[in-house]
Amino acid sequence: MLATRIRRWKSVALATAAVMVGLTAPALTATPAAATTTAYDSTYYKNAVGKTGTSLKSALHTIISPQTKLSYSALWEALKVTDQDPNNSSNVKLLYSGISRSKSLNGGNSGNWNREHVWAQSHGDFGTSAGPGTDLHHIRPEDVTVNSIRGNKDFDNGGSSFTNSGGSLTDSNSFEPRDAVKGDVARMILYMAVRYEGDDGWPNLEPNDLVTNGSVPYHGRLSVLKQWNDEDPPDAFEERRNQVIYDTYQKNRNPFIDHPEWVEAIW
Fold this sequence. Notes:
The chain has helices at 53-64, 75-82, 144-150, 182-195, 222-231, 236-249, 255-258, 262-266; strands spanning 84-85, 88-93, 100-102, 113-117, 139-143, 154-155, 169-170, 174-176, 206-207, 218-219. It is of the alpha/beta class. The protein has one domain (68-266). Strands 1-2-3 form a 3-stranded antiparallel beta sheet. A 3-stranded mixed beta sheet has the order 6-8-7, with no helix packed on it. This is Ribonuclease. GO terms for molecular function: hydrolase activity; nuclease activity.
């Protein structure tokens, strides 16, 4: 993708403690992503550039809503392209575990990879019908067992490791993806919240700050997702994936990959 990016990379930790007696070093927090520019700003995003808050969210919803919808079965072949391992064209890269696995091992058995809905299907009960249930912008390949461990949990920090975790963690009510894809997860969740606003027969999906959302059309934890968006900026894999989905499959983009600073501008 032809684009000029001015990107804020991960925050640098304070190297020294305060030297004056009675003073403590300030707590570190993630800072908003720096503004970016893309080749699509004068065309695809022209009605969104310069807006903030609900006006920006509404403009982006209008922009990204027209899309080509895939069937659930078509996702198998699409994921073999969108998530191809850049170091091995015969494999896909699994989201949470980071494992590179043969494209041919797709299915529902142990040792296979399957179709993970990052926005859990039960959070709005949209199933696998064409629409949110088949939207490539939030569906990724994952090990069958790891997918089951994640289940429909909301996202948050904390938990324990598990087999093939790749650094991801889980506890009774939340899931923390490995560091390398924390921002990816955040931007996928927030894409869904902009794309599906309840005006096309599907639930109005929204982020909130809870980890007990169950079957309601909400996903959390928003404060943590915002932090992950700042700490893990889009990388080449995520940008390529966005471009392939736009060019080859759905004809729409995830705006938070192109403009990660729009997360803070809206929420």
